[in-house]
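Field log, afternoon session.

UNIT: design team B
ACTIVITY: writing a sequence onto a fixed backbone
BACKBONE:
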């Protein structure tokens, strides 16, 4: 829906995911959206260069989140939120976080 406004579908998908979850990293988005990693990384860099997202490292992972200093942040979030509301239910399932794939370490307490 917003891909024509933002230039490509990857940017739209990234913004919707960040709107829903506040943070994202490239390989997570790649797996979740079933898209190659390179276009996702390029789109994230483009959004960071534009000032809409900021990145930081958490361990070895580079996470991206909204830039609180972006002048039109609330307007962009509102637009992304409205576009998410109009997605069909099948498309909304793509934005749910991935479930844990590997077993928990024996003896590790549940959080």
């Amino acid at each position: 829906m917003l891909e024509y406004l933002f230039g490509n579908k990857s940017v739209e998908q990234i913004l919707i995911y960040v709107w829903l979850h506040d943070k994202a990293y490239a390989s997570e988005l790649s797996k979740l959206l079933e898209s190659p990693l390179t276009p996702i990384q390029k789109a994230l860099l483009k959004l960071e260069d534009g000032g809409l997202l900021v990145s930081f490292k958490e361990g070895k992972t580079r996470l991206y989140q909204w830039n609180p200093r972006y002048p039109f942040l609330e307007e962009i979030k509102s637009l992304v939120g409205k576009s998410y509301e109009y997605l069909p239910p099948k498309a909304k399932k793509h934005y749910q976080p991935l479930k844990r794939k590997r077993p928990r370490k024996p003896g590790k307490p549940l959080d």
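LOG NOTE: The beta strands are 23-24, 53-58, 61-66.
NEXT ACTIVITY: expression trials, pending approval
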